[in-house]
Amino acid sequence: MARVIAIDLGSKRTGIAVTDSLQMLANPLETIETHKLFDFLKSYFEKEEVETIVLGYPTKLDGRPNEMTPRVNTLQGKLKKAFPDKKIELIDERFTSKMAMQTMIAMGSKKKDRREKSGNLDKVSAAIILQSYLEKK
């Protein structure tokens, strides 16, 4: 079975998570510089079979768009054009960063590791978005 990949878009860094081949578990994969996203995806799709791309859809608490919402909308269009064989899904990402931080604390991550520039928080947030998608599916 093909995998599902999730993207937590950020202005500087983007978190990536992926399912196992049975689409049961979401795992943090990578945090990359946002401007390298398409290169990363092209390379990843050459190695792994992926059927769906899940995008974290950012909104304010009341559901209205926030400053990142237009960027995600633009990314969705670019992904559809670049990867027409992939299904693109949007999923609410409110509270994922807070949940990711709580998860990392619960797992015993040191404060330094949570703030690490490699973006542990970003890829854990992407995994939470992906797990939420899997649960809804």
Automatic annotation (TrEMBL):
<dbReference type="GO" id="GO:0005829">
    <property type="term" value="C:cytosol"/>
</dbReference>
<dbReference type="InterPro" id="IPR037027">
    <property type="entry name" value="YqgF/RNaseH-like_dom_sf"/>
</dbReference>
<keyword id="KW-0540">Nuclease</keyword>
<dbReference type="InterPro" id="IPR006641">
    <property type="entry name" value="YqgF/RNaseH-like_dom"/>
</dbReference>
<comment type="similarity">
    <text>Belongs to the YqgF HJR family.</text>
</comment>
<dbReference type="GO" id="GO:0016788">
    <property type="term" value="F:hydrolase activity, acting on ester bonds"/>
</dbReference>
<dbReference type="Pfam" id="PF03652">
    <property type="entry name" value="RuvX"/>
</dbReference>
<dbReference type="GO" id="GO:0004518">
    <property type="term" value="F:nuclease activity"/>
</dbReference>
<dbReference type="GO" id="GO:0000967">
    <property type="term" value="P:rRNA 5'-end processing"/>
</dbReference>
<keyword id="KW-0690">Ribosome biogenesis</keyword>
<protein>
    <recommendedName>
        <fullName>Putative pre-16S rRNA nuclease</fullName>
        <ecNumber>3.1.-.-</ecNumber>
    </recommendedName>
</protein>
<keyword id="KW-0378">Hydrolase</keyword>
<feature type="domain" description="YqgF/RNase H-like">
    <location>
        <begin position="2"/>
        <end position="100"/>
    </location>
</feature>
<dbReference type="InterPro" id="IPR005227">
    <property type="entry name" value="YqgF"/>
</dbReference>
<dbReference type="InterPro" id="IPR012337">
    <property type="entry name" value="RNaseH-like_sf"/>
</dbReference>
<keyword id="KW-0963">Cytoplasm</keyword>
<comment type="function">
    <text>Could be a nuclease involved in processing of the 5'-end of pre-16S rRNA.</text>
</comment>
